[in-house]
Design a protein that fits this description.
Layout (H helix, E strand, L loop, with lengths): L1 H31 L1 H8 L12 H20 L4 H23 L12 H14 L24
């Protein structure tokens, strides 16, 4: 029975992270911490590192904290929480940083309808260079209007 709860917590946290990505992007990154996110929209730097990457570190620290709770305090449900956050972070990094922004030159030839829709939606978000007016969405739940047959 514990395995069922473990899987349920992991999947729930993974799904909740999609909401957290949307919320953080809309109200934190394009809100009071725009100063950290701005360099992601304005490429006025030659560095591979962006201040925007600090958001990854924030969620990584939460995940690590969960692993420590599980390891040192025996809080069993902290492990699937930490792993759910970690799994979402890896998926987000693969889709956003590797596939869309090509920080590593992988997945360049993906051309199916889903790949095109994700790229189109992200391009529409990045056409707004300012703090306001950029539509925000998660990684998996992108508005259907971006998925066209072409």
């Amino acid at each position: 029975m514990i395995t069922f709860f473990w899987i349920l917590i992991f999947a729930g946290v993974f799904g909740a992270m999609e909401f957290m990505a949307w919320f953080t992007h809309k109200y934190v990154m394009h809100g009071f911490l725009w100063s950290l996110h701005k360099d992601h929209h304005h490429k006025h730097h030659d560095s591979w590192w962006e201040r925007n990457d600090l958001f990854f570190i924030f969620y990584a620290l939460i995940s690590i904290g969960c692993f420590m709770l599980w390891s040192f305090r025996g809080v069993w449900f902290a492990l699937p929480i930490g792993l759910g956050i970690l799994a979402y972070g890896i998926a987000y990094f693969m889709v956003h940083d590797i596939f869309i922004h090509q920080r590593f030159k992988l997945f360049r030839n993906a051309n199916n309808w889903y790949a095109k829709g994700i790229r189109r939606a992200h391009k529409m978000h990045h056409k707004h260079l300012g703090k306001d007016d950029g539509e925000c969405f998660g990684m998996l739940f992108v508005p259907f209007k971006y998925f066209k047959k072409s």
